[in-house]
Amino acid sequence: xxxxxxxxxxxxxxxxxxxxxxxxxxxxxxxxxxxxxxxxxxxxxxxxxxxxxxxxxxxxxxxxxxxxxxxxxxxxxxxxxxxxxxxxxxxxxxxxxxxxxxxxxxxxxxxxxxxxxxxxxxxxxxxxxxxxxxxxxxxxxxxxxxxxxxxxxxxxxxxxxxxxxxxxxxxxxxxxxxxxxxxxxxxxxxxxxxxxxxxxxxxxxxxxxxxxxxxxxxxxxxxxxxxxxxxxxxxxxxxxxxxxxxxxxxxxxxxxxxxxxxxxxxxxxxxxxxxxxxxxxxxxxxxxxxxxxxxxxxxxxxxxxxxxxxxxxxxxxxxxxxxxxxxxxxxxxxxxxxxxxxxxxxxxxxxxxxxxxxxxxxxxxxxxxxxxxxxxxxxxxxxxxx
Length: 386
Hints:
2 domains, single chain, five-stranded antiparallel β-sheet
């Protein structure tokens, strides 16, 4: 009777330990009874083996669930082994499918995971549709880029045609350097000839922006100048005319301009300004003199005051016209050319011809910038009285 009671007590302890394991305690923390009967010992041995296998498979499942598909699957005769082997095979196959999709093969499909297969296949189908749409858009963008490139080249040819950089007057020597940021720029210049011998008009302007839009605007400005007739002899009247014509067009165009007329007969230079950078008069080794006069940004208001001034010139005088791409050129320290080098460069090589003088300014800009690419259009016009 005592032996029977001991066996019952042992079975109860085993039951309690199994309940603890079922409720989450580790196998290593369980302490099974010792010195039991052979039957009880054999039962404990089988239970321990089963629990150890469960522990091993639990660890394996935890490993693959965290993405470690290289974890080895422990062999056994338990049915869970076959189930886990099938799961491992399925996950490896799904991984292979996913890698094929990642490499661009969007025709991959799976048929062995029920509702997941349906969701997966819908996802790949949507990816395929999206990818094809992106490809079509890229092809369309490429076509547009090619067309834009053609348009820019055409605009460049047109702009080059009306930006006349050569004028022949015996008493003057002129030179121009024009470097747009892209094919075409927003800077405009023009030498205006008159029937009166010895008269020459010099126009320089800067339209906001670059590219085709800016080229079209500079073309409009050129056409407007050409239509001004006798007003071209009076700088203030010409700038008033251009300002009002642009406003009448309603194109919301804003620009700066400077226009002057030189009379080589009496050596005078008459000029007006619409918000543009002030040109400089350079006379021998004297300090550069800014040709200052009042006048606001053009294309904004009709009722504006534009001042007109004139100065006397001497043989050997040089006048430099430029756009803000020169003065606002920035170096790698964030400094502007205007605030650091501009006035110094203007006083260098005072005896140089006008072409060499402009080339010297451009070289100084390139050295300052440490490269020949600029963040704005560059336009330099030089004029020398012979």
